[in-house]
Specification:
90% helix; 71 residues
């Protein structure tokens, strides 16, 4: 399972906890949901950043190969 998917799951879990906390009046559960949601968003952001770094590395490697003449 990708980090992006795990982040989406954490975010959804957080939203559910917030809703459950609101329905039951449980402030601790609501706050726990906020933390899970934030963690999920952070995980997704880091996953996206990692993908962009990987794409950049691939572009640099391709350019270096073309300069050196090796494909």
């Amino acid at each position: 399972m990708s980090e992006d998917t795990k982040g989406k799951i954490d975010e959804g879990k957080g939203n559910l906890k917030q809703a459950a906390g609101d329905l039951t009046g449980d402030d601790d559960l609501h706050r726990e949901g906020k933390v899970d949601e934030a963690a999920g968003k952070t995980r997704q952001t880091l996953s996206d950043a990692g993908e962009k770094v990987g794409e950049g590395v691939d572009k640099v490697a391709d350019k270096a190969k073309s300069v050196v003449g090796k494909d």
